[in-house]
Write a structure and sequence with these properties.
about 170 residues, mainly alpha, Rna Polymerase Sigma Factor, Chain: A, Arc Repressor Mutant, subunit A, 2 domains, 9 helices, about 70% helix, globular
Length: about 170
């Protein structure tokens, strides 16, 4: 490999991040097969990035830190999924499909997640990253390529939409 990372290091990055990347892809793609394909594409982009000269020009690895690594992978996943969805017709995913999906195990399934899955992509992504993956708004902003103010707005509007939906179904 002509990069600053060895195959073993790329493999370690993969194992550290594959579940999160898959779940992000699943939020967008809404089915197992496409989510697996997008996850594979994200890690192919990682390998391509590791092979480019821009990382070597700095004299360091591909990423500045593990946080940068995760943020780049999630941002890449979001972008690849959005690009794919521009040209493909998609259906709504069921909550059962999410739970049964490989890598899609939810720590504590609750009544909110199925409703979260129905929200617009920006709101869904921000809420999922914040409440299910535990990222602060600053990190989510980096991952989504938005400002912190935008992310806080997404969180606010998303919580408001979820609250309304939960109250209507009570």
């Amino acid at each position: 490999m002509n990069s600053t990372y060895s195959r073993g290091e790329i493999t370690e990055i993969y194992h550290r991040n594959v579940d999160s990347v898959y779940r992000i892809c699943f939020l967008y793609m809404k089915n197992k097969a496409d989510s697996q394909d997008m996850t594979q594409n994200v890690f192919m982009k990682l390998i391509e990035r590791a092979q480019t000269n821009h990382a070597e020009a700095k004299g360091t690895g591909v990423f500045e830190s593990r946080e940068h690594e995760t943020a780049w992978l999630i941002r890449t996943a979001v972008n690849l999924c959005k690009n794919s969805l521009k040209s493909l017709w998609r259906r709504q995913v069921s909550f059962e499909e999410l739970i049964d999906s490989p890598g899609g195990e939810i720590k504590e399934p609750d009544e909110t997640l199925p409703k979260l899955m129905k929200l617009p992509a920006k709101l869904k992504t921000a809420l999922y990253l914040h409440y299910y993956e535990g990222y602060p708004t600053a990190e989510i902003a980096k991952m989504m390529g938005k400002t912190e103010i935008n992310v806080r707005g997404y969180l606010h509007r998303g919580r408001k939409a979820l609250k309304k939906e939960l109250e209507e179904n009570s």
